[in-house]
Design a protein that fits this description.
The protein is of the alpha/beta class and 217 residues long. It folds into two domains: 143 residues, Rossmann fold, CATH 3.40.50.1000; 65 residues, DNA polymerase, domain 1, CATH 1.10.150.240. 45% of the residues lie in helices and 16% in strands. The protein contains ten helices and eight strands. The strands form two sheets. It has a six-stranded parallel sheet, with helices on both faces. Helix 1 crosses helix 4 and helix 3 crosses helix 4.
Length: 217
């Protein structure tokens, strides 16, 4: 086995959650009295913390961004989390990992309770030994969240750990913690192998089957 522990990002890696996130961001901007977000702006909300996304895309102050996040997360809890779908072969990958005795986890910048709800709703929660998301005040970094997973798993040998994700946030988080990183281009952040070149990685997967091939599953 190349690794004993596999940690996944959520949005754009395990689930295609783009519709709920993009619609929710635009809905929130309208509720806050602003103009419609462009498609590019909506897509920029996929992956990062919505708190920082609202400040960046809408020019909100911290106070106004927190107000926007409350509206966004209320709509996400009621509707957005159900506007998602599995990536092809994801369930097969997770079943295989568990069957072979890997430790598995999810480290996401989605809020912790929402992450657990969505994984439960899409019947993936049972495949993970640890699930950690961002705190309510959006203070945790990706590296912090990865560390929470490692603590849950009691995994101290970082050479046995790999993070799988679709964005630069994942790449930086993995590098900061000192673990390997597999970049996927089927999600939202990295669109092609060219996008990944600037980020430290051990492998670039264009499909879930590529991940299985690299991990020799």
């Amino acid at each position: 086995m190349r690794y004993s522990t596999v940690i996944f990002d959520l949005d754009g890696t395990l689930l295609d959650t783009s519709e709920g996130i993009m619609v929710g961001a635009s809905y929130t901007a309208n509720k806050m009295g602003g103009p419609n977000l462009t498609s590019t702006q909506q897509k920029s909300f996929i992956g990062p913390s919505p708190f920082y996304s609202f400040m960046r895309e809408c020019g909100y102050t911290e106070r106004k961004a927190r107000e926007a996040v409350e509206i966004y997360r209320k709509r996400y809890r009621e509707k957005g989390q159900f506007e998602a779908k599995h990536y092809e072969f994801i369930q097969e990958l997770l079943v295989t990992l568990k069957g072979k005795g890997y430790k598995t986890a999810v480290a996401t910048l989605k809020r912790d309770d929402l992450a657990k709800d969505i994984l439960l709703n899409f019947e993936l929660v049972t495949y993970f030994d640890s699930i950690n998301g961002i705190d309510e005040m959006d203070t945790l970094s990706k590296a912090d969240i990865i560390q929470l997973c490692l603590k849950d798993l009691q995994q101290v040998d970082l050479s046995e750990v790999v993070l799988i994700g679709d964005s630069v946030h994942d790449a930086v988080g993995a590098e900061n913690v000192g673990i390997d990183f597999i970049a996927v281009t089927y999600g939202y952040g990295f669109k092609s192998k060219q996008d990944v070149i600037q980020s430290k990685n051990v492998y670039i997967a264009e499909t879930v089957k590529d991940i299985m091939k690299y991990l020799e599953l």
